Amino acid sequence: MTEPHPPRTTSKESTAIAPYRQSDAETDPEGSGEDRDQDRARAARELGDALRALTAAATSTEVDAATLRKIADQARDLTGPLSAASRTRHTAPSIDDAKPGRRMYNPAVGPGNPIAPPMRVEVGDGVVVGTCTLGLAYEGPHSYTHGGVSAMLIDQILGHAHAALGRPGMTVALSLRYRRPVPLETPLRLTAWVPEESITDRRTGPQATIATQDEPDRVLVEASGVFVVPSAEQASRIFGDSRLPSWQRDRY
Ligand SMILES: CCCCCCCCCCCCCCCC(=O)SCCNC(=O)CCNC(=O)[C@H](O)C(C)(C)COP(=O)(O)OP(=O)(O)OC[C@H]1O[C@@H](n2cnc3c(N)ncnc32)[C@H](O)[C@@H]1OP(=O)(O)O
To answer: Which among 13, 55, 72, 120 has the fewest CB atoms less than 10 Å away?
Structure first.
């Protein structure tokens, strides 16, 4: 059976992806220059890292019940101070930043979100590459990645490939083929690209694969998606006119 492969270099099929580096924002939340709250962004990343370590410990521990209950009490005590100032679902995080495209709490790439691995994304010349290593918190079949987690990472990397053409869009269709199990605790490489023939005014059909970094040509998961840039009317209906900051409304 033929393995699906992304273009290795800029090719006729993929030149529409501009070689800009949207990913720096996702992976370097401190940003630079005009960042309005660099220290808070750094602190949010530190908290994300600490909670990821806690989650990793909590999903691999074999300590006794008394210890589990003691830790649960301590963890509950942490929630109060964090909730002293909160946003709602209609308000963007104050440390998100449009200019570098930073989404601090995105569940796939946001360094401040403890459920994000987080995947690092590099936008190259015609190909978008994501890297991450998944721990036991992401386990589906014993010692392998949950299929829904693979789908989330795929959706994200496909979205970056679509967005690299200029305008972020929304997934309207996603299709995955799980060829081989995706191992935990193994550096992974996700690759996405947009075939030129799949591009219309509002829509693209990006494709992606998951492989290990050691064997990038051995495809574990292959996927294709359809991404649509919502019309102004659709964006207004979905996101509203006033509750999100203008930079976020303007992204669609
Ligand atoms: C410079 C920038 C830097 C940015 C730097 C940051 C990067 C940032 C990366 C973010 C990466 C996030 C990646 C996660 C992305 C999500 O997770 S998005 C969340 C999941 N998706 C959703 O919730 C979408 C829900 N769907 C909807 O709300 C509606 O379907 C939409 C999107 C408003 C579209 O409305 P609709 O009425 O369904 O579609 P409609 O307008 O009739 O058709 C639109 C086009 O899509 C086509 N279409 C619709 N459905 C399908 C389908 N199932 N199959 C094929 N085609 C279809 C139609 O044929 C039509 O095509 P055209 O005829 O225009 O060529």
So the answer is: 72
* Residue indicated by tokens 């989330």: 152
Q: Could you tell me the domains of the chain?
A: 23-32+89-249 (3.10.129.10)
Determine the atom of ligand 1 nearest the C-alpha atom of 158. Answer: 13
CA of 247 to the centre of ligand 1 (A): 19
- Of the pLDDT bands very low, low, confident and very high (cuts 50, 70, 90), residue 35 is low
Average pLDDT score, the chain: 86
Q: Tell me which residue has its CA closest to atom 64 in ligand 1.
A: 202
The CA distance from 86 to 166, in Å, is 32
Give yes or no for residue 228 CB within 6 A of ligand 1: yes
One-letter amino acid at 177 equals R
221 strand-pairing partners: 178, 210
